[in-house]
Amino acid sequence: MMGKLTGTAFDKEDASDVILKGKPTPRPKDAATLILVRRDTEYPRVLMGKRSGRHDFMPDKYVFPGGRVDPQDGRPVAYSELNQQVEEKLRFKTQRTPRAFAMTAIRETFEETGLLLGKTAEMPAKAPAGWQRLYDMDIAPNLSPLDYIGRAITPPYRPKRFDARFFMAEAEQILIDERPPVDGAELHDLQWVTLNDSLDLDLPNVTRFMLGEIGERLKGNTPSGPPFLRWTRTGHTTDRI
């Protein structure tokens, strides 16, 4: 079920990402992003990091951890599965299993920040591709704390396109310990930042839009469904799933 929204996260272009007109439009690749929220100070904070300037997609922008869905991401053993309502909404207009998106968000967050999102459990010796490090630590991904808060497809004028699902989780519920995030090759200047302070960072427009969604949720306002931002033949649209 879809409902219309006003406004869009694609009102402005990031000049560094625009491609020349007349070139073939890349097909969007499935991706997932995780927004971790901490409430241990006066104002809630979210984890953000700066993308490397060497990236050809959104270089030097501050974003949430995340990345492309890998073929094996639907297979890992989990400590808990997704909430049924979350799973149903993730099925909208995709053939991919919903848990693959959640697993990607957890795997990418681990790879980009070193944070462990799961529970201690006896894991099998052999893991799906990309998951061996977590299996070796006996960490089982914990999917039930993940809430699905939005989806966005990169506009067709970008050199790289992603069909990204955005998840949100309370850090206290999903993190296995209190270790700090560690900068890596993908993200640096990782920091827990309040929503107000995050708006002063150099953000992609879709990230800024999702911060608004988070703000509403943290105020106790429950949206009618995750926003779905995408382009059609007549231009960009923003609906709710």
Descriptive overview:
The chain has 241 residues and is an alpha+beta fold. The chain has a single domain (3-240), classed as Nucleoside Triphosphate Pyrophosphohydrolase, CATH 3.90.79.10. Helix content is 21%, strand content 27%. The chain has helices at 84-90, 98-113, 132-136, 171-174, 195-198, 205-218; strands at residues 3-4, 29-38, 45-51, 62-63, 66-68, 118-120, 139-141, 147-153, 162-170, 187-194, 227-232, 235-240. The strands form 2 sheets. Strands 1, 2, 3, 4, 5, 8, 9, 10, 11 and 12 form a 10-stranded mixed β-sheet that branches. The protein is globular and about 50 Å long. 37% of the residues are buried. Mean pLDDT is 89; it is low at 1-8 and 10-20.
Radius of gyration (Å)? 17 Å
**What's the CATH class, please?**
Alpha Beta
* Strand fraction: 25-35%
What gap, in angstroms, lies between the N and C termini? 6 Å
CATH H-level name... which superfamily? Nucleoside Triphosphate Pyrophosphohydrolase
Instruction: Specify the number of helices.
Output: 6
Mean pLDDT metric: 89
**So, CATH architecture?**
Alpha-Beta Complex
CATH topology grouping = Nucleoside Triphosphate Pyrophosphohydrolase
Low-confidence stretches: 1-8, 10-20
Q: What is the SS-derived class? A: alpha+beta
Query: How are helices and strands ordered from N to C?
Result: EEEEEHHEHEEEHEHHEE
What is the makeup of the main sheet?
10 strands, mixed
Number of strands: 12
List the defining traits of the structure above.
single chain; 241 residues; alpha+beta; Nucleoside Triphosphate Pyrophosphohydrolase; 6 helices
